[in-house]
What we know:
The structure is a homodimer of 327-residue chains.
Chain A: H1 19-27, H2 34-51, H3 56-64, H4 71-85, H5 90-121, E1 126-131, H6 148-155, E2 159-165, H7 172-184, E3 187-191, H8 196-201, E4 207-210, E5 214-216, E6 221-224, H9 227-236, E7 241-244, E8 250-251, H10 268-271, E9 272-276, E10 282-286, E11 293-294, E12 299-302, E13 309-312, E14 315-317
Parallel strand pairs in A: 1-2, 1-4, 2-3, 4-7, 5-8, 7-13
Antiparallel strand pairs in A: 5-6, 6-12, 9-10, 13-14
Helix pairs in contact in A: 1-2, 1-3, 2-3, 2-4, 2-5, 3-4, 4-5, 5-6
Amino acid sequence: MIDQNKLPHSFEITACGTAAQTAKAIKDMTVRGAPAIGAAAGFAMAQAISENPKTSAAARATIESTRPTAVDLFYSTKRVFDAAAQATDGAKTAWSEANAIAGESVAACKAIGETGLDEVFGKRKKMRIMTHCNAGWLACVDWGTALAPIYAAKASGLEPFVYCTETRPRGQGARLTAFELSNEGVDHAIIADGAAAWLMKKGEIDAVIVGADRIAANGDTANKIGTFGHAIAAKEHGLPFFVAAPTSTIDPGLENGESIPIEERDENEVHLVRGVDEAGVVRTVRWTNPASHARNPAFDVTPARLITQIITEKGISTPSRIKELVE
Amino acid sequence: MIDQNKLPHSFEITACGTAAQTAKAIKDMTVRGAPAIGAAAGFAMAQAISENPKTSAAARATIESTRPTAVDLFYSTKRVFDAAAQATDGAKTAWSEANAIAGESVAACKAIGETGLDEVFGKRKKMRIMTHCNAGWLACVDWGTALAPIYAAKASGLEPFVYCTETRPRGQGARLTAFELSNEGVDHAIIADGAAAWLMKKGEIDAVIVGADRIAANGDTANKIGTFGHAIAAKEHGLPFFVAAPTSTIDPGLENGESIPIEERDENEVHLVRGVDEAGVVRTVRWTNPASHARNPAFDVTPARLITQIITEKGISTPSRIKELVE
């Protein structure tokens, strides 16, 4: 997998030879983004079953303890575990199932791109779209979710312009979305998270698209911290606010967003910033006041009423009808 | 003056021996915060008049070109310039007027603290207050504006807890407010700007207090970028949103916030982060994608309807009646 902690300062491929290594890569965010976590978790489960079928239940618990919020993780471990348990050749079946999950993810993201292209862009050649965090191909197996319609637009000759919110504290917008868009030749500008509402007010943003880590049955959506505030600001300015996600992100067992577990991560993610110095050396510096502590909730929940449409591989839905797509 | 660009990693006092040096210190944010800019601009004007009375009009234009948004700057240059022009001993009068401005600023901030203590805290012993950017004693000659009621509360035995939003891109919250609060022994936590709305939703914030760079006659308030989004989120959650500022920040000549000039600063403020590495060396790193550009509006305007009360040295006012305080 691509080591996303090192981007954009260096591009490194990391091999995870054991289930434990893959689980660690999920936990420390070497791999991140709900669909990519889902695919990695499926492979981690297959690795664990290959390593020792007798301890695979314990291994599943370990894998599932890495990140609590993205439901794709639990979807994948369950699917691989259950498939192997019902098969005569458990390990072979597990690998096959993990590969199927990854393949389905690619197909779902491609479909989200095509559907989202029609819904978001309509027939408009130029759209200025804001996205938060990274929900592009780095966050998925390929294509992306929130960025898939933008890539589809670019490929079909439209001229999207993307505002990437930095997405403090981890900088997935400043580091990863900006990196992807540069690679794909999509015009864009990084903005501080705090600049989003003002650019909306000034008429410089036409629509917002974000990914999702978990969607409850009523359409409430957990996503990277900051999403909720941007959704409130979009509503205030009458801008459409789209969520793009595969249906594996929908958790029909959760009535609403109140019970989605929200991960609180290490405060050092706020204090420490990694970058390149003038000599080209990658360094980590502490930028905050040394004697101070930080709070670091990693996700928030955007209530369904702030979401215009949810774009999935099975089509478009208002949040209130999202459950129908998985029934 | 304290070099605020170097805080909290080192505490250095910089002497500005000429008007040009003082103007440069305002422009490059060695000194920042509307009241501190106002005081520095008054002294810069006095320096210019001492250096050469004949070129003082040109010098005034130079000083006034440093930062466009904070009205305190223009208030001070005008006041010192006009006083000197009407006096027989121009230089002596200019210095006296500049000193008077600085002294009045201290008194105004102290009064804001006392008034704000009653208004914000009421009789509550524990309040969890969010503030954005830095409007403490670093931003003023002493005491601060938004932080003055918090310091007054601490001094009178109450137990304030402060959430300091990082305030990207320059980190005035993460660097300066956190530094001040540590020094004053006030409990606090730094949060990413994007975490504010979520903590409001979770019931962890009781009120918001911010400073101001310019207040229009109708109460619309320019302040650090990000303020507007926090005000929208506070309204959404029914939280009081206070602006604390001396009446010198009110610009009765501006009908509303539409015509407040908003400074757009260098994009490198988004790309570059200054901090301390593991060896204790202060370094500047680029944390964003190397090939990407950034937008960097430095201020935004919060409409009067989102502001609960404005706290000044002359008392409390609703935004709609703020003009009466300077008539």
